[in-house]
What we know:
mainly alpha, two-stranded antiparallel ribbon
Amino acid sequence: PSADLNQLIADQWEAWMRWDPLFATSCGDQRFNDRLPDAGEQHYTFWRGQLAGFHQRLQEIDRLALPPADRLNYDIFARMLNFEIAGLDHHGYRLPISKSGGFHTSLPDLHLYSPFGTLRDYENYLARLAGLRRYFEESIDLLRLGLRSGYIPPRVTLEGVDQSLQAHILDDPTRSVFYKPFEQFPASISASDQERLASTAQDAI
């Protein structure tokens, strides 16, 4: 039973990394650094199904056959799964923006936890910049779904949000926070690659 539990926890973590590549990067898992997650309703429906599958596997493990330490892991893992499944069932993700946070404040911090030591690192970051338009459009669709289904936040929670968005609408892309990684390069990247990367970044922004 302990081996089954440990494998289940490892499988859930692996699925989480693949479902949310941004979270994976923040955890130091760099396998998906060229990807953004999806932002649409189907993205969360898919994850809810995966979590339900992990919950079913957990129920098949004999908790009483586990040693005390693993029994505690079992209980914590069960609580985590139940909490997240319940949250998805309430569709809280249909409110992806507020004054306190959201994708409009987290994505501009991407350069702070992304690696920039190699050419590949920069290429990965550019791939994410290229995917931002798709991510924003899916997020807008999700906001509209929230409006249609009654997920409407109090006005006070949105005060100031427009200013935080306006800060990223610039005539000069080199002034954008998304351009920060291209202001200075490691010596290992050639001058020609630096010029190409910087030009591509400006176009993407």
